[in-house]
Amino acid sequence: MFEYAIVRKPCRNFKYGLTDADLGIPDYKKALSQHSVYVQALKRCGLQVIELKADERYPDSTFVEDTAITEKNFAIILNMGASSRRGEENDIENVLNDFYDNIERINHPGTVDGGDVMKVENHYYIGISKRTNLEGADQLIKIFKKNNYLCSKISLTNLLHLKTGISYIGDNNMIAVDKFRKLPYFKRFNIIYTNESEQYGANSIRVNEYVLIPKGCKILSNSLKSLRYKLLELDLSEFRKMDGGISCLSLRF
Ligand code: CIR
């Protein structure tokens, strides 16, 4: 069960963040209102939400998931792959200091973005991407192994992060984009592959008794309902324009 989430309001410079999405410029007011609905959804899942003020220095700072890993007994401050984002982790570390005695870190030249790190029960899958390099993944694996987790590295092409394309939603179920069919790693799971038009839904999160998915993924929504999941469907159109999905807007622990 998760008890807390850290989120950070999008800043007015949000539109200057990194993106390959080609979906237009985000509307700031709309982003703020979508963000506040997201926060309400986390509260509905039973979480106490720690809301950080917007930080104009970092256009991408609303995507807090990339800054850290939050486990039961330890947290890891990450060294993000994009240099424009380095520094976002400082305020997050200050918050985590109130919750954790044991905080580890990934050191340069190792880089890891939290979006590349997927936890599946006692196993961590780490995407090797443009943001997460082998050195960073190996530092991470050392920390996870010390804490008795299994680890696997997965090389990615044409995806920003591992969790852009795949999510674990508990009970042996995953949601994934079609190209993950070829991967050998997840054979033992029940995988719901997203329709071509609903690939954005592959980034979804299980938060306690709910699954949060993006609005507009009708087929995915029906598949999850038939598995008896309770869903919260959220409009994240403005975050999508900046390559952000549902998982990256919070750090849950
Ligand atoms: C970036 O490119 O870093 C941000 N514009 C989007 C980060 C999305 N993070 C995530 O999926 N974990």
Verbal overview:
With 253 residues, the chain is α/β, with parallel strands linked by helices. It has one domain (4-252): L-arginine/glycine Amidinotransferase, Chain A (5-stranded Propeller), CATH 3.75.10.10. Helices cover 22% and strands 24% of the residues. It contains six helices and 15 strands. It has helices at 28-44, 89-97, 134-146, 162-165, 218-226, 237-240; strands spanning 4-8, 48-52, 68-70, 75-77, 103-105, 117-120, 123-128, 150-155, 166-168, 173-176, 190-193, 205-207, 210-214, 230-234, 251-252. The strands form five sheets. Strands 2-1-15 form a three-stranded mixed sheet, with helices on both faces. It has a three-stranded mixed sheet with strand order 3-4-5, covered by helices on one side. The chain has a three-stranded mixed sheet with strand order 6-7-8, covered by helices on one side. Helix 1 links the parallel strand 1 and strand 2. The longest helix is centred in the first third of the chain and has 17 residues, at 28-44. It is globular, with a radius of gyration of 17 Å. It binds citrulline. The site of citrulline has 19 residues, from loops.
